[in-house]
Amino acid sequence: MCLLFFMSAMITLAGCGVEPSAEGVEMAVASTSAGTTTLTPIPTLAPSAVPPANTTLTTPMSNSIVSPVATLSFHPSSESPTVKTVDIEADPAFASVEQSLIARYASVSPTKWGERVPGVKTRLHTKDKVIALTFDACGGKEGSDYDEKLIQYLIQEQIPATLFINARWIAANPSTFQDLASNPLFEIENHGTEHRPLSVTGKPAYGIAGTKNVKEVIHEMKDNADQIEKLTGKRPLFFRSGTAFYDEIAVSVAHDLGFELAGYSVLGDAGATYNTEQVYNAISKAPSGSIVLAHMNHPEKDTAEGVIKAIPQLRKLGYNFVLLAALELIE
């Protein structure tokens, strides 16, 4: 494990931090001493204020919540943003939901960590020759640029794509975000508020600190979803964490809040570190039902060139491209 940590620390982080390859990235951590986990009973609350265990909140519930608007600022010596909230109007219903979820998982310890944690969907459920292209926009000091060449190619070729966008990127590119959101080719989804791995213990992935507890898990997902909904009129369904790492408790919290977790099956550009040929080789060999993960926030890298080279090859093989919402996702 020490060797793995040392090797990961040596990788140059780009974009979302380097998403590792699918092989060998899921790691188990120590089980609880009892060997089993028990969920804390939910406090007695009004039925409309809290979801039952193993169910999700409905969209009307989410839309009824008055949420803070997140604004971002940066410490001069750090890439991590300071998230401030303004114009907050307290909502008793959501406060009850939040507290009940914190109580539910208070005595539970995670036993899994990685990209392939149960509950994270990585493929399209289909036998058709279709592929979902997804592009992350991570934001932050080194990740708030815009790969206009990539996006313009998708528009020119009328290729639909799902865009996972972080709150920091939205703050840095407000007009571009609105242009993307208004284009029916693109599906805008949630890449988090501070671009953190989703953990209840602060577990890091590739040098990026994870959320520390259930409350931070909730707000990493919810605050950016609220912002996207406020800006576009549509609440995102899918969430992908920074680095695409999760523990299983965080996964359960996400499901309680009605989010579907979108992983990937094809690593398209490895955090925008692949060269043109590597991007081409990864994407052009994607099998049917693949969810491809690449990045749209590093125009100085080779992602666009690799995608532009791979798309004609996939079309020649008879593949079409779809949004994530078009089909059921499976693990």
From TrEMBL:
Residues 129-322 form the NodB homology domain. PROSITE patterns: NODB. InterPro entries: Glyco_hydro/deAcase_b/a-brl (IPR011330), NODB_dom (IPR002509), Polysacc_deacetylase_ArnD (IPR050248). It comes from the Bacteria. It holds the Pfam family Polysacc_deac_1. CDD domains: CE4_BH0857_like. PANTHER family: GLYCOSYL TRANSFERASE-RELATED, SECRETED PROTEIN. This is NodB homology domain-containing protein. It comes from Paenibacillus allorhizoplanae.
